[in-house]
Amino acid sequence: MDKNIYEPIKCVVVDNIVESPTINTIVLKPEKNFSFLAGQFASLTVPGVGEAPFTPSSSPFDKEKLEFTVMKIGRVTEKIHQLKIGDIVGVRGPYGKPYPLEKFKDKEVLLVGGGVGLAPIRALFLALVETYKNYKKIVFCCGAKTPQDYIYKNQLFSDWQKLCEKIPLSFRITVDKKDEKWKYMEGVVTVTLDNLDMDIKNSIAVVCGPPIMMKFTTLKLLEIGFTPENIYLSMERKMYCGVGHCRHCLIGELFVCKDGPVFTYEELKDKPDIWA
Amino acid sequence: MERLYIEFKNWQSFLKGKLQENKIYAPVDNDGISFYEIIDEKNIEKIVYDKARPVEPFKIFLFPFKEKVVPEILNLEKIVVLGVSSCDLKGIEILDNVFKEGEYKDPNYKKRKENIMVISFDCIQPYSTCFCSLVDVNPYPEKNFDLNLSKIENGFIVEIGTEKGKNFIGKDTRFYQANENQLKNMKENREKAIKKVEEINNEFDFKKRENLKEFHYKEYWEKIKDIENCVSCGSCTFNCPTCVCFLLEDTSERDFFKKIKVWDSCQFPGYARMASGATPRPTLYERFANRYLCKYWYMVENFGILGCTGCGRCISGCIGKIDKRKVMTEILREKVKT
């Protein structure tokens, strides 16, 4: 008999890390091997509460554990924030198309993440670092509302920046509103795209964040010379099945769950209601 | 295709004989409207053979309103469904594409389908809301059935669609080869039904339906006056033989996972709303347009077939009295572009 597509794999919660006032990272140990590629997503079941789709934020190379970085915004995410070590959750997937790393080869890669949108970007970033020799350079732009709202603080402001000495990597970090201790840029995330030291013609950009951020970042990227085929967007829609059956996630005729969640702007630009 | 003939009273006794071993559903007359009922000795006389589609679409047997998907249903019963209309048989093609043909298979659908014996009927008297002729569907079944009954004088032409259908009849001698006159009678009835549907729909025009993709902007739909009457009840989608949208409800108990699949409707304001509160279709007009775009554009792109079979249930079930044929005709005549 075929495997039931809706049957989740049991996972034990091994940690629940507070990242910011509204965002936690839960660390799971799946009962069976769960492999995914950066950009793919999974459906996370909180037993008796509900199920919601998230892109894992941990490295696809990490076979021991699986992490999801989740903003508290609704019924299921509120329960995720309350999960305790030892609790059981379910995961099914991975679903959707990953970032096409083969197309990034010998290119300069620009990552732009805003707020909790840094979560899928983190999985991609960790995958890029593992295979850094394949890319000319990596420029990582990130934004958040305030310094407190940043997630992955220990990594972003310390470990990851140390990597810049070893591999062709640079960071451009901003907040909408800074405080007295802040030593990076101030302004919405598009300010990080001014005066980029990149060969735009040989670059690809990856964007993930709230709809409004993705919209203005895309417009800015087009303005500075990126072509629609070289801008990758990670789209978010209401989802239930994850496998192209329930039709909740349609953007035009495209299924975010099956044809995405990673799309080029070229694929989306003529579709109805893309910046929901 | 093998075509047999059986007299009406013989069919009645044949069917009665089948009641013992089979659970049989058929459209039964209920004050002039036919609803599916489980057939017994009493209501067998009230089965409607000479009208058109029943109130409920056939999809309710393949994709019920609510069903368990985790764990999947293990003991699905075998049933016989009579009175399936040509438009509903066409609808199965969409359901098959979604739940059976793709990379991911629905846990119950295929088993359900295998357990159903489909006995379709020709539409003898199309309803005023029927519009299969506008979407290239004939008012009589051509495929996707096990047996098809076409009512003629004093009896039925029985078309055998599958081995399963053939075995249902077995060697029963009350069925015999249809003669030329009987087949001619069937052909005439079919031509009459086509003419009737065409007459019903002569003021409507779907010819340029592929142009609908140019009209996805809200501004066009805002110009269609009738849409104001939509109250987002979802009747048009629940009654539709090809609407497949559903949601999953989680009823797991600790580490024993349980999930239930329940119909959903793109006409409901909360349908595509995300936890943040954002929704890609915040207005009535966008949601209303979505149903049309899905049927005549998205499904065509997804599966290569039209997502509308012309059954007209979305029209007869609409409490706002919105006629899809009128809306489509207005949109496609580009009245909205002025």
Please give a handful of descriptors for the protein shown.
heterodimer; A: 276 residues; alpha/beta; Elongation Factor Tu (Ef-tu), domain 3; Rossmann fold; 2 domains; six-stranded antiparallel sheet; 6 helices; globular; B: 338 residues; eight-stranded mixed sheet; three-stranded antiparallel sheet; 11 helices
List the helices and strands and how they pair.
The complex is a heterodimer of chains A (276) and B (338).
Chain A: E1 9-18, E2 23-30, E3 41-46, E4 50-54, E5 66-71, H1 75-82, E6 88-95, H2 101-104, E7 108-114, H3 118-130, E8 137-144, H4 153-162, E9 169-175, E10 185-186, E11 203-208, H5 211-223, E12 231-234, E13 250-251, E14 254-255, E15 262-264, H6 265-268
Chain B: E1 2-7, H1 8-19, E2 23-30, E3 33-38, H2 59-62, E4 66-70, E5 79-84, H3 86-101, H4 109-114, E6 116-121, E7 147-152, E8 155-160, H5 163-169, E9 176-177, H6 180-200, H7 218-222, H8 235-238, E10 246-250, E11 259-263, H9 284-303, H10 313-316, H11 324-332
Parallel strand pairs in B: 2-5, 5-6, 6-7
Antiparallel strand pairs in B: 1-8, 1-9, 2-3, 4-11, 7-8, 10-11
Report how far apart the termini of chain A are. 39 Å
Percentage of residues assigned to helices of chain A: 10-25%
Radius of gyration of chain B: 21 Å
Instruction: Sketch the topology of chain B as an H/E string, one letter per element.
Output: EHEEHEEHHEEEHEHHHEEHHH
Strand content of chain A: 25-35%
Q: Strand arrangement, largest sheet of chain B?
A: 3-2-5-6-7-8-1-9
Number of self-contained structural domains of chain B: 2
Shape of chain A: globular
Oligomer: heterodimer
Largest interface: A-B, 43 and 48 residues
- Approximate helicity band of chain B: 25-40%
CATH architecture of the largest domain in chain A: 3-Layer(aba) Sandwich
Low-confidence stretches of chain B: none
Number of helices of chain B: 11
Task: Tell me the name of the CATH homologous superfamily of the largest domain in chain A.
Answer: Nucleotide-binding domain of ferredoxin-NADP reductase (FNR) module
| Uncertain parts of chain A | none
**Regarding CATH, which class of the largest domain in chain A?**
Alpha Beta
Pairing-aware structural class of the strands and helices of chain A?
alpha/beta
Total E-strand runs of chain A? 15
